[in-house]
Amino acid sequence: MTKIFAHRGAAGTHPENTMVAFYEAERVGADGVELDVQMTKDGALVVIHDETVDRTTDGTGWVKDFTYRDLQSLHAGYKFTEQYSTCRIPLLEEVLAWISGTSLLLNIELKNGLIVYDRLEEKVIDLVKHYRLEPRVIFSSFNHNSMARCRQLAPTIETALLYMESLYQPWQYVRVLGAKGLHPYYRTVTESFVREAHLHHVRVRPFTINSEEAMNTMFRYEVDAIFTDYPEKAKQIKKA
Ligand code: G3P
Ligand code: CA
């Protein structure tokens, strides 16, 4: 049965990667939440998609150049209604503390492609272990070296490889990296690819599926999960 992951929380209806977006994911009955992690100048793990704060907050500059304290003064929901305008950028730890009191799955995307943050993998793993969330967490990244490193450091936590373009028979590649899942751009996914992945015991979780048509297609292909900005809509379509 295809699981539904709320992408950046319920990012279609709430400010992405904020606590209110994650609460909404739980409210609508999503199976899991997806979020992105970057690191501040003083080593805090923060939940934000971009390397800069420009698109999602009322500030400007690189996340890596802010202290955590300074980042807290930014408004991460300023584009939304007044109700959400003062949302802050959460710490990964805040989300993990909250998730541990729920039954949600959690996909943590390590944003270490453009900027290589020092010891990002070690820090994220330590926190996940602290909250004993290993069985409910999936690590993913477009940086496949980083996924190999996570696998080496924490063999019990599932890793998955993100990619944009088609990979030709990636089964050996997946095995060498110790990954359990492929997270492809959804337009590259075909029914036969999903079938073959499953024969190789590889899970397929495409991103980011927001239209009704694409949701129906992915459910028909029996992908293992979808990432969507609209988890409530996905739940309804899955039920229909
Ligand atoms: O994890 C799936 C998806 O989040 C990857 O793309 O750019 O939305 O982080 P992006
Ligand atoms: Ca992401």
TrEMBL record:
GO biological processes: lipid metabolic process
Enzyme's top EC category: hydrolase
Keywords in alphabetical order: Hydrolase
GO molecular-function terms, A-Z: glycerophosphodiester phosphodiesterase activity
Pfam families registered for this protein in UniProt: GDPD
Domain GP-PDE, chain residue ranges per copy: 2-238
EC number: 3.1.4.46
Protein name: Glycerophosphoryl diester phosphodiesterase
Organism ancestry: Bacteria, Bacillati, Bacillota, Bacilli, Bacillales
